[in-house]
Amino acid sequence: xxxxxxxxxxxxxxxxxxxxxxxxxxxxxxxxxxxxxxxxxxxxxxxxxxxxxxxxxxxxxxxxxxxxxxxxxxxxxxxxxxxxxxxxxxxxxxxxxxxxxxxxxxxxxxxxxxxxxxxxxxxxxxxxxxxxxxxxxxxxxxxxxxxxxxxxxxxxxxxxxxxxxxxxxxxxxxxxxxxxxxxxxxxxxxxxxxxxxxxxxxxxxxxxxxxxxxxxxxxxxxxxxxxxxxxxxxxxxxxxxxxxxxxxxxxxxxxxxxxxxxxxxxxxxxxxxxxxxxxxxxxxxxxxxxxxxxxxxxxxxxxxxxxxxxxxxxxxxxxxxxxxxxxxxxxxxxxxxxxxxxxxxxxxxxxxxxxxxxxxxxxxxxxxxxxxxxxxxxxxxxxxxxxxxxxxxxxxxxxxxxxxxxxxxxxxxxxxxxxxx
Length: 421
Prior knowledge:
Helix content: 40-55%
Strand content: under 5%
Number of strands: 6
Largest sheet: 2 strands, antiparallel
Number of helices: 18
Radius of gyration: 21 Å
Structural class: mainly alpha
């Protein structure tokens, strides 16, 4: 641990910028999800040698992920084995993970049509299309590399993040087109569906913060890169608000709708459309709270799933990030009270028995692994933003995330995708 910190033993003066002959603390980054002032305070603590034990441990984990990313990738959508229906490999493609062939695959019916839904049971066929996996690896790498650069000042992290971003989003030979038209296609079906957009919305907002961190003067991240990303995001946001798939997803009442609102608010804020972003957050409070959350704080739409523990936490990940975006826009989602009296804190506290005692304290269906630790981020958020003492106490007793709790240096709710290996 001391060797890790020794590599980071940068003078506190490196965080100081002279202004009219006076040294002042460097300005916080203009992140749109994470509170930039919190990141700046953590960085100053790290570089001045005053970081807490939790921050030092979390930083070690973040640097491990970033160091792994230095020699992985870069990844591209054009590397998938087959093209989507458009014939253009630059279009993102994935297969709906919970849909399975219902008939034997024969020469007359090679796909085994029709496909039927088996909620929560992932069809390994979906993994043959690499965009979904590469997206997870690439987007996690971009985030952790950018965060590692921000805390250490080591140019190698920023330069690698810039390479990964250019490869996935900007370089003409390898870039992804700004749409999710062919996400989570169901074999044998040709009808338009919006559900595949979740491939993107569940984790895209972490990229917006990565871009914002690099915008703060990162080596290897040029003005051309910044303008290119903003042009890409402008097209992407338009698709995410006007396409047939997006309109269906915006109308979704469960976690799908929450994630799309959260993503669109984050992108709007990054593009300088703060009024639009603020409206998205306020509209989400008013239209989604009454539908998603019962008066007792339960989430009926997510509890109906076969993986109910996963999905109640999944939905709250989106709400946690939406609240973080709202805070930066002057909207306190944690204080919002729906007509039925429910608040976000009430919803979070519903998870405490499951987080502490596992499946034995969760009277709902959860096929597969019951991972108590996935509630950690939303408990952190509730403890810090809503002064939720019950959530804070639960954090001290519940199992911690595999590999360690990185909240102390991320200070934002993170997607529940499998982490970068």
